[in-house]
Specification:
The complex is a heterodimer. Chain A is α+β, with helices and mostly antiparallel strands. Chain A is built from 5 helices and 6 strands; from the N terminus they run βββαβββαααα. Chain A has 2 domains: 86 residues, Ubiquitin-like (UB roll) (Roll), CATH 3.10.20.30; 71 residues, [2Fe-2S]-binding domain (DNA polymerase, domain 1, Orthogonal Bundle). In chain A, 32% of the residues lie in helices and 18% in strands. In chain A, strand 2 and strand 3 form a beta hairpin. In chain A, helix 2 crosses helix 5. In chain A, 44% of the residues are buried. Chain B is an alpha+beta fold. In chain B, helix 10 runs antiparallel to helix 11. Chain B has 11 helices and 14 strands. Classes of the chains: A alpha+beta, B alpha+beta.
């Protein structure tokens, strides 16, 4: 059972420790804290977007132990002790991830609201499958809706990123 | 969208989870992946005062073949766990493929098979194929445990036989002798759409004879539905596409779909006819391998 304190209204606040982008965050949260709100409001990691809020659109996609999930559908308390990667965790040492580079090169995002989620779905795909087929790319981002409907550039950018990554790693 | 306040328990075992559920009765709900429950809570269709987390319990996480028993699928495995399971890909590819038909990758990484079944949505993708393979559900509560054929777990849309303190802990697909099986889903989009019609078929072939057959429909009745009449007309007969078409007509006549924003009842019935035939053809094609 997680440790908790009870506030003046009788509501429990639970102690959680979650590793986010490699940094361990320890906070007191209420049971009704949703991961997407925890990231955006408690940690100011606003790259993760909130849109449909019922698991349909993928704008809030983050990686949970390396797997893409909708952070709007996760109770923060349920990921106590786990590892989360958000879009802020992609670029390391001020160097963009290959996917981010290729998204820019292909002008893939239009309004850009779905881009962080698509980046995370694509990242998870390439971690597991460095040389995906076009069908596999489409399947991997099928849970990410783009209201600008600019899917084709995203698919091309992900395929290009996979090819470039392969080339660089020889 | 924000959630009302509730208390959250993190039990260390199924036994403890059942005890906490029993203590709080109808005010409590178990939560695993949360992909159905949290949507209902956000829309104020449910307002539990206590949530009992069970998604982390290791005892619910296995997929294994136990000789003499069958394939045991823990209720806490996700749809992607099922899709990626070597055991299922080898023994029941149809189940692994059916899991991939659900929603999208993000939801499949969270949503569990136990949750999918316990929510008892008529259009759910896993029940038809699991019922076609004679799957049973092991149910544990504070008063002990019971094992039921999966089709008897469902009592109506969003309703099951589960009592407040009971959890499904595992599903068992017995070594049943079915040599071919498949689940076909018909929906309005390739991904992220609910089934308008789902048809699962399992066949046991002996040369060209259909020794046994199961046909189970999803999304076209209040609960997943076995089409006993269609099965009976096929059992013991030689494989014959004309006969599959007739079985489709029978299945179409006995299903009870609703008309809604996605499709009319008449359309769904006609699709049952076609998808029943196709499911039988595909199951038989696999059964010959």
């Amino acid at each position: 059972m997680a440790n908790f304190v009870v506030d003046k209204d009788g509501i429990k606040h639970y102690l959680v420790s979650i590793t986010i982008n490699g940094i361990l965050h320890t906070r007191m949260i209420k049971a009704n804290s949703l991961l997407v709100n925890f990231l955006r409001e408690d940690l100011d990691l606003t790259g993760t977007k909130r849109a449909c809020e019922q698991g349909d659109c993928g704008a809030c996609t983050v990686l949970l132990d390396g797997k893409p999930v909708n952070s709007c559908m996760i109770l923060t308390i349920s990921v106590n002790g786990r590892e989360i990667t958000t879009v802020e965790g992609l670029a390391a040492d001020a160097k963009l991830d290959i996917l981010q580079e290729k998204f820019i090169e292909h002008a893939a995002p239009q309004c850009g609201f779905c881009a962080p989620g698509i980046l995370m779905s694509a990242k998870a795909l390439l971690l597991n499958n460095p040389r995906p087929t076009e069908h596999q790319v489409r399947d991997a981002i099928a849970g990410n809706l783009c209201r600008c409907t600019g899917y084709i550039h995203y698919v091309e950018a992900v395929l290009d990123a996979a090819a470039s990554q392969q080339e660089r790693e020889g | 969208m924000y959630l009302r306040d509730f208390e959250y328990y993190t039990p260390e075992s199924v036994e403890e989870a059942c005890r906490v559920l029993a203590e709080h009765g109808s005010k409590a709900r178990a939560i695993a992946g949360g992909t159905d429950l949290l949507v209902k809570m956000k829309n104020d269709l449910l307002a539990p005062e206590v949530l009992v987390g069970i998604g982390h319990l290791p005892e619910l996480k296995k997929i294994e073949h136990v000789p003499g028993k069958g394939v045991v699928i823990g209720a806490g495995v996700t749809h992607n766990d099922i899709q990626n399971s070597k055991v299922l890909q080898e023994k029941y590819l149809s189940v692994a493929e059916a899991a991939h038909q659900l929603a999208n990758n993000q939801v499949r990484n969270l949503g569990t098979v136990g949750g999918n079944i316990s929510n008892a949505v008529p259009s759910a993708d896993l029940p038809p194929i699991l019922i076609a393979l004679d799957t049973t559900a092991r149910i544990v509560g504070t008063g002990g445990e019971r094992t039921l054929p999966l089709e008897e777990v469902f009592t109506g849309p969003n309703q099951t036989v589960l009592r407040d303190d009971e959890l499904i802990t595992e599903f068992i697909i017995p070594d049943n002798g079915f040599t071919g099986s498949t689940y076909l889903k018909y929906s309005l989009r390739a991904s992220g759409a609910l089934a308008l019609v789902g048809v699962a078929a399992a066949v046991m072939l002996e040369d060209d004879l259909l020794k046994d057959v199961r046909i189970v429909l999803g999304a076209v009745s209040p609960v997943p539905m076995r089409t006993i009449n269609a099965e009976n007309m096929l059992r013991g007969k030689p494989v014959n596409t004309g006969l599959f078409e007739e079985a489709g007509v029978v299945a179409s006549a006995i299903c009870r779909p609703i008309s809604d924003i996605r499709a009319s009842a008449e359309y769904r019935m006609d699709m049952v006819r076609i998808y029943t035939r196709r499911a039988l053809q595909k199951a038989v094609a696999e059964g010959h391998v």
